[in-house]
Amino acid sequence: MARGGFTAIKSALAAFLGLAFLAWILQIIGLAGLQRNCYNMGTLGQTTGLATGAESVLSTNLAITGVRGLNRSLECSDVYRYYWFMLAFQLLTLIGLTVTTATGMLAASALSWLAWLTVLTLLHIQGADTFLGIKDVNYVGFDNYVYSRLTAAGWILTAIADLGLIFLLGWRPRKLRAAAGPIKY
């Protein structure tokens, strides 16, 4: 009976890992689209009614003011680098968790994975808030509106998948909690 419980945990773990990988793909598509459609610093001032030149950089900075998580002092090409770091961090964690599960070493390292996934979940909740805020900025245009919603959906799904993984990694069947020795999946 205990074996059946572990089989169910492994199946659920595989499902949440799959969801996390699919959400990661949504994130990368959306973030790449936002980066590709990055506004031009020299012409943004014209669309907002401000003069071009030095004031256009000011209007660019003012355009993203109020969007939590974006640094308005950076050039457009650098605005999203924090979120690229999150994507790389998530991918490395998912690959490591998958390899650890496949090699049967998950029980020995579950606490470490719980810590990493907790940090990632918080980062993804903050990222979802940022990309939901971008869609409400007037200058973004339709393409960026769609990409920001896609990216926000990816960040939300990843946070949900990470929460599911956290729950599963902390789960121990009731009958085996008091048993001596490590639990092997």
Give the secondary structure arrangement, pairings included.
Elements: H1 2-36, H2 44-47, H3 54-63, H4 76-79, H5 81-103, H6 106-134, H7 141-170
What is the gist of this entry?
By secondary structure, this protein is an all-alpha fold. 73% of the residues lie in helices and 0% in strands.
Verbal overview:
The protein has seven helices and no strands. It has helices at 2-36, 44-47, 54-63, 76-79, 81-103, 106-134, 141-170. The longest helix has 35 residues, at 2-36.
Beta-strand fraction estimate: under 5%
The total strand number stands at: 0
Radius of gyration: 21 Å
Distance from first to last alpha carbon: 14 Å
Helix content: over 70%
**Oligomeric state of the chains present here:** single chain
Order of helices and strands: HHHHHHH
Overall body shape: elongated
Category from helices, strands and their pairing: mainly alpha
Q: How much is the average pLDDT?
A: 76
* Low-confidence segments: 40-61
How many DSSP helices? Answer: 7
Major sheet: none
What keywords describe this structure?
mainly alpha; 7 helices; 185 residues
